[in-house]
Amino acid sequence: MKPSFGESNMGALAGAIVGAAGGLFGVGIASAIIGRNPALLLDTPVLGLICFFVSGAIGWVLGGQIGPRLGDKFQNARAEIIGGLLGGLLPTTGIALWGWYMITPH
Predict the structure, then answer these.
(1) Cβ atoms of residues 62 and 16 within 8 Å
(2) Can you state the angle between helices 45-74 and 77-103, rounded to 10 degrees?
(3) 106, 91, 89, 98: which is closest to 31 by C-alpha?
(4) How far apart are CA 68 and CA 11, in angstroms?
(5) CA 24 → CA 29, 47, 52, 69, 95, distances in Å?
(6) pLDDT tens digits for 40-83?
(7) DSSP string, 15-33
(8) Distance separating alpha carbons of residues 5 and 37, to the nearest angstrom
(9) What pLDDT, on a 0 to 100 scale, did the predictor assign at position 5?
(10) Phi/psi at 23 (nearest 5 deg)?
(11) In the chain, pLDDT over 90 holds for what percent of residues?
(12) Is 27's pLDDT higher than 70?
């Protein structure tokens, strides 16, 4: 049985939490590393807030799809949460890589 699109489950919750937190800080992580100043994590607050909502929503959807499938495969509730975490890391990684691309000269 496949989970429906946008279904509420533990994987979706874990994906939304990881995605939202990562999206909030993902934009500024490149400038904070290059500038060696942790205050630069929140240098762009409006863009960080937009990425917070976008990454949280994408993490909800991906975590809700990946988590239950891993939970069914391994017959373990923890596997569902780990699948949700992986689903939340995908948009976070994408936003962090996009932030890195925007800050570096090319």
Answers:
(1) no
(2) 150
(3) 98
(4) 6
(5) 10, 8, 5, 27, 9
(6) 999 999 999 999 999 999 999 999 999 999 999 999 999 999 99
(7) HHHHHHHHHHHHTTHHHHH
(8) 40
(9) 86
(10) -65, -35
(11) 91
(12) yes
